[in-house]
Design goal:
- The structure is a single chain.
- The chain has 8 helices and 14 strands.
- The chain is α/β, with parallel strands linked by helices and about 250 residues long.
- It has a single domain, classed as 4-Layer Sandwich (Metallo-beta-lactamase, Chain A).
- The strands form 2 sheets. Strands 6-5-4-3-2-1-14 form a 7-stranded mixed sheet, with helices on one face. It has a 7-stranded mixed sheet with strand order 7-8-9-10-11-12-13.
- The termini are close together.
Length: about 250
């Protein structure tokens, strides 16, 4: 299996619109971060996690030609704003795209993108097939296990796909979910910044501590703010924890 990081930045992206934030981000291309999304390829499946504002650009630079299923973590704009870009895949594949997410997120998407789902659905708009996702499901040679976590007071859905566990926007992992993650070869998890603490996201030191407790092979941090300089922060991390960056590819 191969995991491609399509985006690794916070909800505002990095650098931030208007040029706000630190100025170091232009020195290193690894500090240019689209909103979080990922692409998992197995022998017979092409799976995508989240479709944010830069989704069209992400698919073009990664070369995604097929999407067999979409997994959506939650309904915040930085994770669903690019859903309309899935139209091209509907046209090419000539069928709806299966979607795995929570009932709450499905309802939010149906409300915010009503033109896709209303009785007078706009011709040619995205065709999505929401499927129940309370238990593990199988997509070809991939087993997808739900990993509910907390993002402040909000439940966010993570996903374990075979030996890859992916969690974003998290500041608490329930014990039951932790057991489902344990032993993964790769864990992807948000690490917003080094400090100070944040009410809805793990800091990088907190994510490092969680990673050690979960007994996983390699952890990659995502959802980094403009205040995380890739080169400087990487020097402070143990070998089992790395900062991901856009277009990084890792294999299992």
């Amino acid at each position: 299996m191969k995991l491609t990081f399509l985006g690794t930045g916070t909800s505002m992206g990095v650098p931030v619109a208007g040029g706000f934030g630190p100025r170091f981000s232009g020195r290193d291309p690894r500090n240019q971060r689209y909103r979080c999304s990922a692409w998992i390829q197995s022998a017979d499946r092409s799976l995508v996690i989240d479709a944010g504002p830069e989704f069209r650009l992400q698919t073009l630079r990664a070369g995604i030609r097929r999407i067999d299923a979409l997994m959506i973590t939650h309904e915040h704009t930085d994770h669903i704003a690019g859903l309309d870009d899935l139209r091209a895949y509907n046209y090419a594949q000539k069928k709806p795209i299966p979607v795995y997410t929570t009932q709450r997120t499905e309802e939010a998407i149906r409300h915010r993108f009503s033109y896709m789902f209303s009785p007078d659905k706009t011709p040619g708009s995205v065709d999505l097939d929401f499927r129940p996702f309370n238990e593990p499901v199988h997509e070809g040679d991939c087993t997808i296990v739900p990993l509910p976590v907390k993002h402040g007071g909000m439940e966010v859905m993570g996903f374990r796909v075979n030996d890859i566990s992916y969690i974003t926007d998290v500041n608490h992992i329930p014990d039951e979910t932790a057991e489902k993650i344990r032993g993964s070869e790769i864990l992807v998890m948000s690490g917003l910044r080094w400090s100070p603490p944040h009410p809805t996201h793990y800091t990088i030191p907190q994510a490092m501590e969680v990673s050690e407790k979960l007994d996983v092979g390699q952890t990659y941090l995502i959802h980094m703010s403009p205040f995380v300089d890739h080169e400087e922060v990487s020097k402070r991390l143990p070998s089992r924890v790395k900062l991901a960056f856009d277009q990084l590819e890792v294999s299992v």
